[in-house]
Amino acid sequence: MRILITGAAGYIGSHAVVGLQRQGHEVQGLDDFRAGRPDAPEHLGVPFHVLDAGDEEAIFALLREESFDCVQHFAADVHVSASVGAPIVTWENNVGTTTRLLSAVRRASVPKFVLSSTCAVLGDSGAALVREDDPVCPMSPYGSTKAACERLLEEEVSAAASAGAPFSAAVLRYFNVCGAGAGPFGEPIAGSGHDVRLSQVLLDVVQGRRDHITIFGTDYATPDGTCVRDYIHVDDVVAAHSIVGDRLKSGEFCRYHVGTGKSTSVYEAVEAARRASSHPIPVILGNRRPGDADSVMADSSRLQALGWTPGHLSFDSMFASALNHRGPQ
Ligand SMILES: NC(=O)c1ccc[n+]([C@@H]2O[C@H](COP(=O)([O-])OP(=O)(O)OC[C@H]3O[C@@H](n4cnc5c(N)ncnc54)[C@H](O)[C@@H]3O)[C@@H](O)[C@H]2O)c1
Predict the structure, then answer these.
(1) What CATH number should be reported for the domain holding residue 107?
(2) Distance from Cα 279 to the centre of ligand 1, integer Å
(3) I need a surface site. Which of 78, 179, 181, 245 has the fewest CB within 10 A?
(4) 257-284, pLDDT tens digit by residue?
């Protein structure tokens, strides 16, 4: 397939460019570098379009020119805390951009669309393993924007079917992505000012960029009191994109959970990072952050039924892949 990847200069999008290319697809990247790596085009070695994914006319011209079979949409504002402080900015980029991109996709008759979504649409369900049809209940503006994009996409597939247009789409809800693999870049260095992933903070400590980790809340309803999450390796996310994109049937809309179903608490992740690095990891205990659920775990049986199996099952192995990654700084 000819695939356009938006957000191709970002963490997951850059892995997807390499991973989907290795699966034999003809891939092109798109990013406007508002958050990604400006050196991505030189390291990815695929045709690269420096464009705003929400510039409908420019995207329409590109889609017509290149006759893509599929758009895989990774571009988004991804920081939960930034979204809490400035919801309009996040809604404009996530929902506004996706709306205009989808309009261009529709006008250019691109038949397939795959959206990056997140377990942040789910909130704190209390269920042991969350399924795709469980109710959504976002706990942040970021989660709300992704839930809105999912709904828009579902409605667009339905409208296209009514109009007899062969359009299909899938939503992949990733749980907590970490690790490094196919892409040229490892996990992004954590910046200050925004929430960052736990694995990034742990990498910062063991690589000497910060001197401790703060654990936000130790009184959650979990076995050791710290938040429990389902971590998924970035290459396993890309493998899900490949399988789902290949299998999409005309007129179909489907959601998939992308996680291992294995729980890791914050304390367990800190211990795993100590084991992998043999480096001391000083811990400071802090207060809870707004919007953090006790435990969010994926039931990914729908995705596994397509033949997807995660290659990395433990946080140890995911963290080690990031720690041992060698690539451009
Ligand atoms: N990282 C995670 O743990 C995680 C978990 C669940 C879902 N997701 C989703 O996966 C996707 C990728 O996340 P990531 O961690 O790689 O983020 P990232 O910030 O590393 O990458 C996002 C990329 O999109 C680009 N971008 C944003 N808006 C754009 C626009 N309007 N036009 C062109 N480019 C634009 C940015 O410049 C950046 O390169 C996002 O949709 C995110 O919501 C990520």
Answers:
(1) 3.40.50.720
(2) 30
(3) 181
(4) 999 999 999 999 999 999 999 999 999 9
